[in-house]
Specification:
With 160 residues, the protein is an alpha+beta fold. The protein contains 6 helices and 5 strands, in the order H-E-E-E-H-E-H-E-H-H-H. A 5-stranded antiparallel β-sheet has the order 1-2-3-5-4. It starts with a helix and ends with a helix.
């Protein structure tokens, strides 16, 4: 299913606006102060931000696929999903991405395990429940937005 980042956010009922600092890249700022876009657009923004700004504020951050590509494969829907570059991502500090979310997801739902969509959904909720207020938008709102996007993705592919 090929939707734009803004269409995915609309489906998830996440309030957002175009992020003005990301000129030339459709990157969106949510009410939870999260930067969301496709992987390609977030990477383009980070590269441009670093080149344009002396501070390169987002240079140490990483684009995290809100629903991981390998999980789409485990659910047998990878062939229906957009390419990795076109999947919806959120820009996170490295410690939140690698050190927290990915490690929790892999400990709760190891890649070698066969899992149901419901179990994987609970795993994402658990991982996003432990994310801190990295953006200043509030931990509860950050989690709600990310979990809403996961729910919208699972609904779009008729998994739940």
């Amino acid at each position: 299913m090929k939707l734009t980042a803004s269409e995915w956010l609309d489906r998830a009922e996440v309030k957002f606006e175009l992020y003005g600092q990301a000129k030339g890249s459709p990157v969106y700022l949510t009410m939870g102060q999260q930067l969301i876009g496709t992987y390609a657009d977030l990477e383009h923004y980070r590269a441009r931000d670093g080149a344009a700004n002396g501070n390169a504020w987002h240079q140490g951050w990483q684009a995290h696929h809100i629903v991981e590509e390998h999980d789409l494969g485990r659910l047998h829907i990878k062939h229906l999903a957009p390419s990795r570059d076109d999947q919806l991502c959120v820009l996170l500090p490295e410690r939140a991405h690698i050190g927290r979310i990915n490690s929790i997801l892999r400990s709760v739902a190891p890649l070698r395990d066969i899992v149901s969509p419901e179990y994987l959904l609970r795993s994402y909720k658990e991982a996003y429940d432990l994310i801190d207020d990295y953006s200043g938008g509030g931990q509860v709102l950050i989690k709600r937005e990310l979990v809403s996007i996961v729910h919208a993705t699972f609904r779009a592919y008729q998994l739940i």
